[in-house]
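Assess this today:

___
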Amino acid sequence: MFERFTKDARDVVKDAVAQAERTDAARVGAEHLLLALLGREGSRASFALTALGLDDRRAPVREALERARRRGGLTQAETDALAGLGIDVPEIVARVEETHGPGALSGERPRTRWRGHRPFDRAAKDVLTGALRTATARGDRHIGDEHLLLALTARPGVPAEVLADHGVTHASVTRVLHGDGEAKAG
């Protein structure tokens, strides 16, 4: 499948691996793919993100991803649902971090030298597969970074929730990239 990726899409995947390495994450996740997309310039995905007003809100998106990471990857909706059951996730996070240190629920390993291939987690694999399906459904021969963005917004989870909180949804990305007489990515 990787041979069908455009240079931009390959660069996103490589940067996602680098994002995971920077945080010593055991696996490359969907949030790493989003962080990699946020760092892109001059691509179809970066055009869509800019057109949707995310250009000046990238820092808050990164902060929201960091908050979710510290919650062990729970979405805000999941955190709210647990609160409805009387489970105070922020309090649990604070107590765990008090005992075990900041980011203890993040699933990160202690800083050690990583050897070998860093695997992709299920969410990241689902995004890559979703990008392939999106490209195929549109009749595109290659998978671009815009297909990765569309797949991220279509898959439930932290990246889609954080993007939606900033006005970037599957429908809005589709509209900017492909439709309705508005500005389209070239």
Q: What stands out?
A: The mean pLDDT is 86. The chain has one domain: 2-74+119-178.
